[in-house]
Amino acid sequence: MAGVRTGRRPNIFDTDGHPHPAENATAVAVLVTGLAAFVLGLIIRNSHTAPAVHIITTILGLFALVVGMVVQMLSSTRNQRIVIVAGIIAGFVGLAIALSRGGLVG
Fold it and tell me: Structure pTM?
């Protein structure tokens, strides 16, 4: 069969041809925590929630922001940077909403 690939399937983040499993995992972790902080921030903004939700949202947003900034400096490919920046922005918005509603104090 002509045109059939054999071997390892290329990863969408590894556009330079080299595997970066740790960097890929942290990029996805920043995106997931940033989106979680964003969604929880929207829930806080639109309904009355328990103080624990404010604290969790603040911690998730702060994690996405700080870890995202560090991982951004260590990233190797453009696709990793795109995912990291999306996570940083979502985490920042969630953090800002949580801080406006009480932050770590609840």
Answer: 0.87
Question: Where do the structural domains in the chain lie, given as residue ranges?
Answer: 21-100
CA 77 – CA 14 distance, rounded (Å): 7
Give 47's contacts (C-beta < 8 A, 6+ positions apart): none
Rounded to whole angstroms, the Cα distance separating 58 from 74 reads: 24
Assign 34 a pLDDT band (cuts: 50, 70, 90). very high
CA 33/CA 86 separation, integer angstroms: 11
- What phi and psi values does residue 47 have, to the nearest 5 degrees? -150, 165
Residues 6+ apart with CB under 8 A from 26: 67, 71
For the stretch 58-95, pLDDT in tens is: 999 999 999 999 999 999 899 999 999 999 999 999 99
Q: Could you give the 3-state DSSP secondary structure of residue 8?
A: coil
